[in-house]
Write a structure and sequence with these properties.
Number of strands: 68
Radius of gyration: 35 Å
Number of helices: 17
Shape: globular
Distance between the termini: 92 Å
Helix content: 10-25%
Structural class: mainly beta
Strand content: 35-45%
Length: 1449
């Protein structure tokens, strides 16, 4: 043998070992970015302290039961076997110590309060049967008990008020809620001897009988009309939740690249600056304690109190039902959560223990979940191309704590949501099965037929919460702010009047003043105020903002109303008392006529100023079941709740300290990557020398063994996560380019239109970017959408494609009669004609003074102001440490007091590069007359400084030099300290949840069309009015012909002239034109699809806003519908809620509006708008705080309102529709089975609205809760196929009706107005209204002229809005949380059942669950599908490309 061979083989083996080792080290490794980071952890003491609120452990429950059995001296039967005549323990729950004791322990260094339990006992085996409550302690080893019944309720609780035990029910039916057979029985079970229980009445199909014997006799004699009801299969037929389709491509998920950023230990959660203790009351459900933000307690307790459902029917069971779910056990019936449907798969799940109706504790597995959720939108953001180029933003990522209670037929999703800005949201969403009655007689007065013999019965949901706020301490007061208009003389023009918004303020001193009934007017800003003040001198506060659609709960004349008197009030604030711990009692259900607890008694006009206060909040909605509630009610539109928001509690928005903040300037290139596996070294070969052959052979054998071992490990070790592989959407695109009939113009088409106009108008045209007012120019070119009749003939009737045309707006300043003219130019792409449509559209030429201001005009005004400022150098140096070149000007509008005026106030601010100047007023404002066509004749009319008016800057300078002017010096700030800086205050931390699509997008985008799971939508962007959708179809049927934004109004108040005269109509500035590039990962999910938009405005050259519209499927981390059943048959059915979102964000000077259109699997369409960006401000002087709040050293955040207007051209089952209203009323009737008694029965009120005046609903006025667009077609159950409109808005008066400019924004009068669709009424506003609101070009009020709307092509005009009183937390930016409004379009008997029943994402778990696999159950696909790593393209931003700031001399 060659002596060198062993050495050669040994070297080769070493090389192989090296290679295998490298493979082993790299294979299966996670990306560096996926390594878990340590979570934020509070001190151990805070976690152990939270145990003072902890639920009982199973061991403690056992000890309590044992103690009671041994020490009460009476026999106790296990409640699960007990008869009414027995003694038993009904329930054992924790007894939370008195608040004073707890706070002394938590804050004052006092002793830990004794841990105690509250035991409820039924004493049926006593001479005087009763219910007794004992406090038992101390735990874990009880040594005492005390009877607290008399102390709590003023006496013994009568035994008839007890809750029914499980042994009193006979569960012999399955998932039955939708299968009534027409038979109902009235059981008298009042006797303690169950042998005495009897059936006292029988009801069948509208008739009452003494008992079953009488019913049988009537049947035998042929006196009964029997309705044969087919026997339903085991899991029902139409009511079955089993999937109708196999799983398809995996739905979007979210993953945490570096693990959860929250921590859960025992009953304590920590998330960023939040910490709180959680628990579960066996009766009332989830509750939180000691909620702190940045270490300060904000809420001592927030808890569900009660859930009420009141039903109507013409069957006795339905008409007599008033469920108080706390008596059944909201916490007890909290159901196990299903990973991936009820909560995200990767959420943290916790078990809950309870002892009720048994002597043995029970466990509900995975009853609570905690997770961080990326909401797929910005919490705050601003894009700037004024003064300096920069972008700042923060993604909205929130912590959610959730439980879901299944209470009979309904499933309630309870959420508490914690935002990074210090806000807390409580939300409840209803799903599950509707309850039903047997359809007979006049049943349709009480609901809708949803199946052959099934009436979905009308009912209400009312939910009551207790919120014990401790804002800046235990003692608080209640404050109310709102807006009112005052008529004032314009200080700079005393002969003119102006309607000025003013901040109304009131201290609510007593409980009676703080009790706001449903449907009554409530101030829009209600907040708990602390005794302490923030940096700017305002009382620190937390505001309550309620979302509710509740109406009358029951008439107050009802004999049982006092038991649910909490439901009278949307909000009631009372003094906190230990003897008023809850708003209701579990004993109220079975004796509502003499309630154990009557909330109305809490309100007794005591003072609530500087007291420990509790807010009792009621939210609710009316539910009229319809076909789409089969098999389940969906959560979309059935969501209510409230928000707690800081209001001057901090000195600025605390989210500025988030580690997630993003900031970059126009000069920076930012590349974001989540990391990749680093290259690893595996060591080096050692030299082999001076070794004997024997040694070499031994080493060779060992090397071969090592190679064998490494190969085995490699073969068995899991593979590294692969990159997610996309699957093509299953939906075929069959549009064949038809949607292009709505498409925006291409840049090439715009160029052709400009060229045609230049060559064919016969007048010189100057490029608008350089044009003076005395020139002719092309202002804008946009697509001219063809007439609807032509389009429908093309889309549906096989007609010819309509000619493609453009609408060109031209300014003719170089003419004897300067005017604005609009031309239709076509056909595209090669124009050959143009026609003047101005007179046709507006009844005449548009006066030239109405033209929108161009950038060139603003630049010339800026030069004028700069020249004028140079006339006051000493004043500027003294007031602002400035020579004028570092100041920025902000326009106001409108521009005068009467038609023909063009005089504008400009507010002057300090400009610091990379920051928003909007928060840095210097106190100087100038009024510029720029109405003349010769710009050399423009001049200043007025100068305002710090409350005084001057005729010129020279006069201002002279007054200053003479010492006659009080100057407030505004120091020059740095970029780091200026109020408007959005630069993150913290370095980046571990990334939050990242949305991704394991198998790629499930939607497709082609040209201007999106398809997604039955949906198809054509989208576009009007440069003036913003985003618009056309031809919205679901499963091939057109639902909406046009859905478009029309206008956005921002109306301000101030004691400075610029602020008090501002009424921005943003359409005139360009909502679509100023929708700039979106930032991946903040404005939209990182992996969304981004689309460019093109426009031609104020230029002869098209411009592109790249990536300015995004499309994505959003994981809502919530079930769309679900039901958990453990009654007779055990099963779970659910569907994850995902939504297709189309989004654009418009930056209009200071504000950024997030425009969303959402499409659900249930056939619903939602439209939402959120406001963020910078507030506008005035210089703080005099009585400035009558018009807002101080938010900086010299900055007044001025109150204002936001109103948005939308056009919705619904085509429900065809073009011709009707408008119907439905709501609930009460009728007092004799009980058919007990004529001596009366009952208040809900019934369904219906009305068809025949004329436009009937369908115009003023803001602030009543509106039916169900408004539906109905068609002549009918669904399977005989109902007109319809779509319901549901509005979420907080808007108030837009302008007094007496205002001379009100007609220009008369659309703002109405929350809803429905009119006949007319081609000559295409839009509710005009770009020309801004600069001449006194003689509006388009006045929406003229659209409403009482024409018939029955069987017509109809348009819904919808206004949504809110009041904004800026406060310290609006610095540096307003957040989107709480500043969102919108509306829903929901199918209402349009389908025969919920269309989402056919979704491939449906999940069903039954007895065969173990046999389910990825082929039948999408949840089984999750582990494998989610094992892939998403591919993230590098992030780059081009939103500042090809832009330049105006230069100054």
């Amino acid at each position: 043998m060659n002596p060198r061979l062993p050495y050669i083989l040994l070297v080769g083996a070493a090389v192989i070992i090296f290679i295998l080792s490298c493979m082993l080290l790299s294979r299966g490794k996670r990306s560096a970015s996926c390594e878990s980071h340590p979570r934020n952890v509070e001190k151990t003491g805070s976690r152990s302290q939270s145990l003072v609120f902890a639920d009982l452990t199973p061991e403690e429950m056992v000890q309590v039961v044992r103690y009671l059995q041994e020490n009460l001296g009476v026999p106790l039967v296990d409640a699960s076997r007990a008869f009414p005549s027995d003694n038993c323990i009904f329930s054992v729950d924790v007894q939370v110590p008195a608040k004073a004791e707890v706070l002394q322990f938590l804050d004052g260094g006092g002793a830990r309060p004794a841990r105690e339990a509250l035991a409820v006992l039924y004493f049926g085996n006593q001479p005087d049967p009763n219910i007794t409550e004992y406090v038992v302690g101390p735990l874990p080893t009880p040594a005492y008990h005390r009877d607290v019944t008399v102390q709590k309720y003023g006496g013994r609780v009568p035994y008839h008020r007890r809750l029914m035990l499980g042994s009193e029910y006979e569960q012999n039916v399955s998932g039955f809620f939708l299968h009534p057979v027409g038979l109902e029985v009235l059981v008298d079970h009042s006797s303690l001897d169950i042998s005495q229980w009897v059936v006292s009445r029988v009801f069948y199909n509208g008739q009452y009988y003494r008992d079953m014997v009488q019913l049988e006799s009537a049947y035998v004699q042929g006196r009964i009309s029997v309705e044969k009801v087919k026997k339903a299969p085991r899991d029902g037929d139409f009511s079955s939740m089993k999937p109708r389709a196999p799983p398809a491509a995996m739905f979007p998920l979210q993953y945490e690249p570096q693990g959860p950023r929250y921590s859960v230990r025992n009953n304590h959660v920590v998330f960023q600056a939040w910490s709180f203790a959680f628990g579960m009351s066996v009766n009332t459900g989830m509750r939180l304690f000691d909620v702190r933000y940045q270490g300060e307690r904000v809420v001592y307790e927030i808890s569900v109190q009660e859930a009420l459902s009141v039903y109507g029917s013409n069957c006795p069971g339905g008409m007599s039902t008033r469920y108080m779910d706390g008596s059944f056990g909201i916490g007890r019936f909290t159901s196990p959560l299903v990973r991936g449907v009820d909560c995200p798969y990767s959420a943290t799940y916790m078990d809950v223990y309870y002892l009720a109706q048994s002597q043995v504790s029970r466990t509900t597995k995975n009853a609570l979940c905690v997770f961080e959720h990326n909401l797929g939108s910005p919490l705050r953001r601003h894009y700037s191309n004024l003064q300096s180029f920069y972008y700042g933003g923060l993604v909205n990522s929130a912590l959610i704590v959730r439980s879901i209670a299944t209470l009979g037929n309904y499933d309630y999703v309870w959420d508490f949501i914690f935002y990074q800005n210090g806000a807390i949201e409580a939300k409840v969403q209803a799903t599950g099965y509707v309850s039903s009655s047997f359809l007979h007689g006049d049943g349709l007065r009480y609901g809708n037929r949803v199946w052959e013999h099934t009436l979905g019965t009308i009912h209400t949901h009312s939910i009551n919460y207790k919120v014990d706020l401790d804002v800046g301490g235990v003692k608080n007061s209640l404050m109310a702010h709102d807006m009112a208009f005052e008529m004032a003389r314009a200080p700079w023009s005393p002969e003119q009047q102006i309607e000025r918004p003013r901040l109304t303020k009131k201290v609510l001193d007593t409980e009676d003043q703080a009790a706001f009934r449903h449907q009554s007017k409530m101030p829009r800003y209600i907040y708990f105020a602390a005794n302490s003040k923030n940096k700017w001198g305002h009382q620190r506060g937390y505001r309550i903002q309620i979302v509710s659609f509740a109406g009358e709960h029951v008439p107050e004349a009802s004999s049982m109303e006092r038991a649910i008197s909490w439901a009278r009030y949307k909000l009631a604030v009372t003094r906190r008392k230990e003897d008023e711990p809850t708003s209701t009692s579990i004993y109220n259900q079975n004796d509502p006529w003499m309630p154990t607890v009557a909330f109305a008694d809490f309100i007794n006009n005591e003072t609530i100023t500087n007291e420990d206060l509790v807010a009792w909040i009621t939210t609710g909605f009316l539910h009229i079941p319809h076909s789409e509630d089969i098999p389940n009610t969906v959560t979309v539109g059935n969501s209510i709740g409230f928000l707690l928001r800081p209001y001057n509690y901090y000195d600025q928005d605390p989210s500025i300290y988030s580690h997630d903040g993003v900031f970059f300037t126009g000069h920076s290139t930012r590349v974001l990557q989540l990391g990749s596996p680093p290259d690893r070294a595996a060591g080096a070969l050692s030299a082999v020398a001076d070794m004997s052959v024997k040694t070499a052979l031994i080493l060779l054998v060992l090397a071969l063994a090592t190679i064998f071992a490494l190969v085995c490990v490699l073969l068995t070790r899991g593979r590294a996560p692969s990159t997610c592989q996309p699957q093509h959407p299953e939906q075929e695109d069959t549009d064949d380019g038809q949607s292009l009939v709505f498409a925006d113009l291409t840049p090439e088409e715009m160029v052709q239109v400009v060229r045609y106009l230049q060559e064919n108008l016969g007048v010189p045209l100057v490029d608008a970017s350089r044009a003076f007012p005395s020139d002719n120019c092309i202002f804008s070119v946009d697509v001219q959408v063809p007439a609807k009749a032509e389009v429908l003939q093309f889309l549906d009737g096989g007609g010819a494609r309509p000619a493609r045309e453009a609408l060109a707006v031209l300014y003719f300043g170089n003419q004897p009669d300067p005017n604005i003219t609009e031309y239709v130019v076509g056909p595209l792409p090669t124009p050959a004609y143009h026609r003047d449509v101005t007179v046709q559209k507006y009844g005449g030429k548009v006066p030239y003074h109405r033209r929108p201001v161009t950038a060139k005009e603003y630049a010339d005004i800026d030069l004028l102001i700069q020249r004028e400022l140079r006339q006051a150098p000493r004043f500027l140096a003294a007031c602002c440490d400035s020579d004028g070149t570092d100041l920025a000007m902000l326009t106001t509008a409108p521009r005068g007091f009467q038609s023909g005026d063009r005089a504008t106030w400009f507010v002057i601010f300090r400009a610091v590069a990379g920051t928003g100047f909007f928060l840095s007023p210097v106190g100087l404002e100038v009024l510029v007359d720029h109405g003349h066509l010769d710009i050399s004749r423009w001049h200043l009319l007025q100068v305002f400084y710090n409350g005084q008016y001057f005729t010129s800057t020279r006069t201002l300078e002279a007054k200053f030099a003479a010492g006659l002017l009080t100057v407030v010096r505004v120091e020059k700030p740095s970029a780091e300290t200026v109020l408007g800086s959005m630069r993150p205050r913290q370095p980046p931390g571990p990334p939050g949840p990242l949305p991704y699509e394991p198998q790629g997008p499930r939607y497709s985008v082609r040209h201007n069309r999106v398809t997604f799971q039955g949906w198809s939508i054509a989208f576009g962007m009007n440069p003036n009015s913003g985003p618009r959708l056309f031809d919205v179809r679901y499963h091939g049927e057109r639902l909406i012909y046009e859905l478009s934004l029309q206008e956005a109004l921002a109306l301000y108040g101030s004691n400075c002239p610029g602020g008090m005269s501002t009424r921005y109509l943003d359409g005139s500035f360009g909502i679509g034109r100023f929708a700039y590039e979106l930032v991946r990962g903040v404005d939209c999910p990182y992996l969304a699809t981004y689309v460019d938009r093109h426009y031609l405005v104020e230029s002869e050259t098209p411009r592109t806003n790249q990536n300015s519209l995004c499309i994505f499927e959003h994981d809502a981390a919530l079930p769309l519908r679900r039901h958990f059943s453990d009654i007779h048959s055990a099963y779970y059915g659910g569907l994850r809620k995902t939504t297709l979102v189309i989004r654009a964000v418009s930056t209009l000077l200071n504000y950024d509006y997030v425009w969303d259109f959402l499409f659900y699997a249930s056939g619903a369409v939602e439209v939402r708008v959120h406001a963020t960006g910078y507030i506008s401000s005035s210089f703080l002087h005099g009585q400035g705080t009558d018009y807002g709040n101080r938010v900086g050293p010299h900055t007044l955040g001025t109150l204002h309102l936001h109103h948005m207007h939308y056009k919705v051209d619904l085509d429900v089952g065809g073009r011709l529709n009707w408008l119907e209203s439905q709501d609930m009323g009460y009728e007092s009737v004799r009980d058919p089975w007990s004529m001596a008694n009366t009952i208040e029965r809900p019934f369904l009120r219906k009305e068809r609205l025949e004329r436009e005046n009937d369908a115009a609903f003023p803001l602030g006025g009543p509106m039916p809760r169900y408004l539906t667009f109905t068609s002549s077609q009918r669904n399977q159950w005989g109902h007109p196929r319809s779509y319901r409109l549901q509005i979420v808005s907080f808007a108030g008066e837009h302008l007094p009706a007496s205002s001379r400019m009100e007609r220009a924004i008369s659309w703002g009068r109405y929350q809803l107005a429905v009119t006949q669709r007319k081609e000559e009424e295409p839009a509710s506003s005009s770009v020309y209204n801004q600069n001449d609101p006194w003689t509006p070009t388009v006045a929406f009020a003229d659209f409403i002229d009482n024409e018939t709307i029955a069987g017509q092509d109809l348009v819904a005009w919808i206004s949504v809005g809110f009041l904004h009183v800026p406060h310290a937390e609006d610095v540096p930016n307003t957040v989107t949380v709480g500043n969102g409004v919108g509306f829903l379009l929901r199918p209402y008997n349009y389908f025969d059942e919920d269309p989402s029943a056919a979704s491939p994402d449906s999940t069903y778990l039954g007895g065969e669950r173990d046999a389910a696999g990825c082929g039948t159950d999408p949840l089984s696909c999750l582990p494998e599908a989610a094992a892939c790593a998403p591919h993230l393209p590098p992030f780059r931003y081009g939103g500042f490309l090809n832009l330049s700031l105006p230069s100054r001399p």
